[in-house]
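Sanity check record (used in CI):
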Amino acid sequence: MTKRQPAGLFGCQKHLPLCSHCVTAALALPDNQGQLLACRAGGPRLIGGAAGTARLLANQCRFVTGLRVRRAQQIAQLYGRLYSESSRRVLLGRLWRRLRGRPGHASALMAALAGVFVWDEERIQEEELQRSIDEMKRLEEMSHVFQRSGVERHPPEPKSQREGNEDSGSKEQPWEMVMDKKHFKLWRRPITGTHLYQYRVFGTYTDVTPRQFFNVQLDTEYRKKWDALVIKLEVIERDVVSGSEVLHWVTHFPYPMYSRDYVYVRRYSVDQENNVMVLVSRAVEHPSVPESPEFVRVRSYESQMVIRPHKSFDENGFDYLLTYSDNPQTVFPRYCVSWMVSSGMPDFLEKLHMATLKAKNMEIKVKDYISSKPLETGSEAKATTPSSERKNEGSCGPARIEYA
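Expected output for StAR-related lipid transfer protein 7, mitochondrial:
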């Protein structure tokens, strides 16, 4: 003979939750009485009296809580397959801090969880480009400093900038000369609050044109050929409003270190009236490029390159200013990291120079970024084009492939 289960949360033999009608009826019954009701949640139920009310409510809470926990586990498993733990923590933490208290918080959060890159927050603004150009102008005005022998310090900051730093309580450290050659000078300065340095290079080339040098630096396909350290380099997404691009770059690091990968946004500008070109890059998080256990993700990275032609974009000779910083997340002491960057930066610039010469002398086809204009769109346009650079060049207008 089958033993009858006591009346409770799951009914007699249905194992289903009680409806609110059954709970109300149970509260009205004497302690030792039971009643068979037609439960709306699952048919006939035998419910107990008031003595079983506490058990009913406790079981009801356990049932609902169990459903919520299982649902949360399923969501966690889904995102666990898409992102590593550190990626989820960084993405959600940065998003929450950025959007907290702003209008449209919920919609932006849903966009991020849905895997949409928020260009309104991450695109490189005109002000960032202009700051780099202004710094180049300041160095040019003080060019006599670079012509002196035995220069040991970077030119002092303008008075207004020094006062601004003092007012904000974050006065920057002075620049220290690291390398001083005829056409190449390298400085560094500590980044406040970290064990890292920011580096600055001021140099000159006279055997290639600014256009050639600029194009070779931007062309991702050509870089895969001349830079042996590149494992992967591709455009992930392009913003048709500003011309900014998100790139994923994976590069070898010296043995025995793991390879590093960078996800960064870049934007370039060519000002033919003022005879200057600028390229600005900085690290971002992108939902389509989760962190991989094969590489170490570099989350702190900034680079600004400004090029000033001596005459024009198509005549040999130009000055350039490169400002660079990143956190490669190594366990080596500070002086070791400084030595690697100080020696690696001149080596990279020389490889870039030689690649430009090779493209010039051998007439290797390199995309002409100066002639390629970002697509003209209205101020309200927010469309983006996720693609590889070669596959969707049309999204940036009619690109003209010319000899560098």
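The mean pLDDT is 74. If this sentence no longer matches the regenerated tokens, the check is flagged for review.
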